[in-house]
Design goal:
The protein is mainly beta. The longest helix has 21 residues. It is elongated.
Length: about 550
């Protein structure tokens, strides 16, 4: 129990901040939760209490704050005792024992705020704010109407996701996913006013958090609610901890069936994605990975684009033309880097290719990391003999000799689900019309900041007004995508020469105009269409005969 002096001090502190007849909530805040290996979620308890029940001079119900509780009072000291006692809940004690936590080094504080009963909640949510540096913030708001769960929404209750672009002068909320609890197009909060107001609250807390800790970059998580009669309330903030205590060791690579495709996302640019488009079916040599020897690939069969054709290369990388093998410094602690190099093409179309493989040496607090192909990272770089053209951000045509793409698991080999997002784009210029349909993957669950959706798979693209008759593309190689930040705009390249079974008359019409591919640069506002010509130049489509 509490001593008389403690009771007096606690009552004075609570009376100075809270109404006596309104329930207040007491929540656990321990130093054994929210770390990289110990979350603590669900181990401890929160309880509500009524100040008036402790001040009425008796221990007899009903509770003044909860008249329906006729037999018992619900005082604040009762709530405090239950919260502190939950530190020794069976699961909490066993979990600390499992992690070999020294009990003498742990403790619990209590967070206190007004209770927010479910009927008073107009909305609730979780936010993530990542401060990347002075004046640079990514904010994601994940919200549900009423008291519906954000973190465990069930199969039919996915939450709303709003990303807020924070500039130096304004805030721009962007609805990325609607709540399944609301009609299509509706938002949980008022758009954009309440999303801006909430973000301003979070930024104020982030400023104070950074000042207190003396940090200019960090990630923090918030819980917030919209309450009847009160509006927006930020309930709590806590740091998202960075991983620590990792151990480097010789990784052991275990082979498993793997397919890799060009990552058509916010990496590199659309021209690199187009020219270095490839599909891989590598097999790996299972065993410890040390130095350049032994070879980590048993084979790396793949198809790729070369001089307007899709060609195949099979076997071990060591057997390919002018093959070389080396290590590189990934610049990341706890990662090994291996480079395989070879040459393809001839004359002006020749290029030297470098496949870089990133292998982690540390997987959590383990001394013997077992890694599988899905744990690895892959980048593909090409050094072209002749400069290749591309569009700079300002719309000017530039040239370069090297470009890089990432390789990731082929999304289009996985089942299409109801959570995938069908995207439909239409571009027009004069008599030219392009209709392109494709999928984004299911939006990540939970609170996610700074997300840009990559291409998941194509449906098809129909182009009219370019050749005598409209034509459609559905192939992986004939369509290329690259989004800008947060998908605020997108880039496309459509190359009918790479479409299997394309009508020969379409190709003949394109060749007669000198068109290799159609380029749609990054904009949704009346895009200027470009043609990639047969000699590799870029010209505005309307300038071609």
């Amino acid at each position: 129990d509490f001593t008389a002096a403690q009771r007096t001090t606690i009552l004075q502190a609570l009376q100075a901040r809270f109404e006596t007849t309104r329930k207040i909530r007491f929540r656990s805040s321990t130093n054994v939760e929210d770390s990289d290996v110990f979350t603590g979620a669900g181990l401890y308890e929160s309880k509500s209490g009524c100040l008036a029940d402790d001040l009425d001079g008796d221990d007899v119900g009903p509770s003044i704050c909860e008249p329906e509780e006729e037999e018992d009072e619900r005082g604040v000291f009762r709530a405090l005792r239950k919260v502190f006692a939950s530190f020794y809940n069976d699961n909490a004690f066993v979990e600390r024992l499992r992690h070999r936590v020294d009990e003498s080094s742990v403790g619990m504080a209590v967070l206190v705020h007004y209770s927010f009963p479910d009927p008073t909640e107009l909305a609730n949510g979780v936010a993530v704010l990542r401060r990347l540096g002075p004046g640079s913030n990514d904010v994601t708001l994940v919200t549900q109407p009423g008291a519906f769960s954000v973190t465990n929404p069930g199969d039919d209750g996915a939450p709303e996701v709003v990303e807020v672009f924070v500039s130096r002068t304004s805030l721009f909320p962007n609805l990325r996913q609607g709540s399944e609890r609301l009609p299509l197009g509706a938002t949980v909060l008022e758009m954009p006013e309440e999303y801006r107001a909430l973000t301003e609250l979070l930024l104020d807390v982030a400023d104070a958090f950074g000042d207190f800790h003396g940090e200019s970059s960090f990630a923090i998580e918030f819980e917030y609610k919209k309450i009847v009669g009160e509006g927006l309330v930020v309930k709590q903030v806590r740091r998202i901890p960075a991983a620590a205590g990792r151990f480097d060791s010789t990784p052991v690579l275990i082979d498993s069936p793997t397919s890799l495709c060009t990552f058509q996302a916010e990496y590199g640019d659309v021209f690199a994605n187009y020219r270095l488009k490839s599909r891989w079916q590598p097999t790996f040599a299972s065993g410890p990975v040390e130095g350049v020897e032994p070879e980590i690939y048993e084979s790396a069969d793949h198809s790729y684009v070369l001089q307007s054709e899709v060609v195949d290369l099979t076997g071990s990388p060591s057997s390919w033309p002018q093959a070389q093998r080396d290590t590189f410094d990934p610049g990341n602690e706890g990662v090994l880097g291996f480079t395989h190099s070879w040459s393809v093409g001839s004359g002006p179309a020749a290029r030297e290719v470098h496949l870089q493989t990133w292998i982690p040496t540390s997987v959590g607090p383990a001394f013997l990391p077992i890694v599988f192909p899905e744990d690895l990272g892959f980048t593909l770089e090409a050094e072209h003999t002749s400069p290749v053209a591309y569009l700079e951000y300002d719309g000017t045509v530039q040239t370069r000799n090297s470009e890089t793409v990432r390789l990731v698991g082929c999304a289009d080999e996985q089942p299409l689900t109801a959570r995938h997002q069908l995207i439909e784009r239409t571009f027009t210029e004069g008599d030219v019309r392009i209709d392109s349909d494709f999928y984004w993957p299911p939006f990540p669950t939970g609170a996610v900041a700074g997300y840009t959706a990559p291409l998941d798979r194509w449906v098809d693209t129909t182009l009219s007004g370019i050749t005598a008759a409209p034509f459609s593309l559905s192939g992986y190689y004939a369509q290329t995508y690259r989004p800008e930040h947060h998908n605020f705009s997108e880039n496309f390249i459509f190359d009918p020469h790479l479409e299997p079974g394309i009508d020969p008359s379409v190709v003949a019409d394109l060749d007669a105009r000198g068109i290799q591919a159609i380029v749609v640069p990054a904009t949704f506002q009346a895009p200027k269409l470009f043609a990639l010509t047969g000699d590799g130049s870029l010209v505005e489509l309307e300038d071609l005969p």
